[in-house]
Amino acid sequence: MSTGPPPEELHFSQRPTVTEPIPGPRSSDLLDEQAAKEASTVAYPLSLPIAIDSARGATIEDVDGNVYLDFAAGIGVANVGHSNPYVLEAAQEQLGAVAHTIDFPTEARLEFIDALDSIAPGTLPGNSRVAFGGPTGTNAIEASIKLAKYNTGRNGIVGFDRGYHGGTMGALSLSGWSSYKSDYTPLLPDVAHVPYPRPNEYETSEAALEASLEEVRAVVSGRSEDFETPPAGLWVEPIQGSGGVVVPPDGFLQELAEITARHDVLLIVDEIQTGMGRTGEWFASDHADITPDAVTVGKAVGGAGLPLSATVYREELDTWGPSAHAGTFRGHVPAMKAGSRAIEYIAAHDLLDRATELGAYLQDRLRELKQQCPRLVDVRGRGLLVGAEFRDADGAPLPDLVESIQTRCLRRGLIVWTAGIEGHILRLLPPLVLTDEQAHVGMDILQDVVGTVTDETGR
Known about the structure:
This protein has 459 residues and is an alpha/beta fold.
């Protein structure tokens, strides 16, 4: 069976086409209508003021007919591209048969579980179980918290500073962003946060690594002021996405695996943004060659932007009983069908290698730009998760500059996103089906915009 059209045939075009002001007249009307009707929690249109009509591959068309290159992919959702026909065909066929099955078995469900098991990190393939509990990544985090507490009989949970795991109360408790949490306290008790190793804040990567691990050892062993006994679990992003596209030093995940195993603490790796091929491996933890106790997946796992998340964990941890983690939408079957097809598409078109190749190109172009722009102080990432950090001469973050870059890129037909608590990181995470020409055109636009903005601001 054919695995669909090749990546270069998925898109509206290879270049953006902007003929109307942004936002255009129809977009402006819809944005105003949304603001009048929907909750004030809506955020993304504040930075990207467009109303979307349709999308294909790595391109998006707004309701005014402007076509954009998408270097955000729904914040890491559209890994196989928007509206990939090979994926959509299967989802539509399943939707025509049955969509909602709670957790009754279907062929689509079991095929998807097998597909997830086949790509799971480390030694999990053939030794995993999958828990579905809700449509978004934060539901998977909640399941993993319950899994850790149930299996260890302990209450303590540990996250990393500037980490982000979701918006529900347990996931929010684990997250290390005070600005997201301060209005909703108190959250879960018995939560500790330890430093994530950020190499650019230390003289060497080794120093950053040891500073982080020293506190991890203390907390995980139960000899810190946070806990008198070991906690139930430790949650880590293999690369901090929202926290600033921070790639930890080599050896970090391996050390975490050893420390947690020594104290019978579960190691849960949050692969919601980094999974499904984004970093050039199926999961970012594959780069470290470890086997987590559990992995949380979401975002791109639904194949075509369909809502789905899961917690994949060691079979030995499957000690809980029926309805221990429940939910009306315990697996959206069309999303499962789409997820299986997306895995097939990624494998058939060598998109893991493609992510590595394209990511290296994006970083190379940014490093060229860094030579011309002193405010661009760091370029980092892995695969198609790339960050560029902007600071002034005194080291202060420059969120206004990054916001201006994002706005001007949009006017030129390029959608980019941001990261970091201060908002001073430019984040690029395009679909894995991005073409060479699209990558070249997009980086040409970005390079020109950064040069123009920095010239005008004197920064």
